[in-house]
Amino acid sequence: SPVFVVLVCLAFCSRLSSMKAASICTNGQTGCHFISLANLFDRVIQHSARMHGISNDLHSEFELYFLPSKNQIGRVSHNCHTSTILTPNGKENAQRIAREELTEVILKLLVAWRDPLWHFHQDMAQHHEFNNFSSNKSLEMSDMVHELRKGVQKVVEKMQMLGIISPSIGNLGTPEALLASDSAEWRLMNDYDLLYCFRRDSNKIQHYLKILKCRIVPEHGC
Question: What residue intervals traverse the membrane (predicted)?
Fold first, then answer.
């Protein structure tokens, strides 16, 4: 009967909807939340904005506490260990490169800063001139890089589930996949250069995430 056909169709459509929702549930845990790709992007963008804000604060405080006594104000040469990572120059170039390539750049930058920021925090904890509040900020900044990398990895997994990007970049979030993370070049930077370079790179990460979001889910706040 027509009523039976309608009921079967409704049941079938309902099952398809639940399967689609379950397929994008992170790792399929029981009771997990169904987070949209747009919401995941919003979370990592907000997190990256906070991280960049902390890097700005620390850079300013570092200049206040250390540089005046060392007569280094105005020094413009900076050696960044991440200069070996090719990054798109400007918004237009970032919009032109492939989504996989832009995602790869973001992950490479995050992994490359894991060890340097942890060692920077250990260095700061030994300086009595640098107050405890600022030292705690350096630890928070190190933790935020780790959390942001995990968040971006979830965005990558979601995009792969939805068929937006290929699965070929699945292991880019692991330090073993990236030479920059275990390079000793960052050890040659002094603390001021390190803060300067991280402030620059955290700003890049924030902008790249915004550009990636607007390319993939432009209907959500772009």
Answer: none
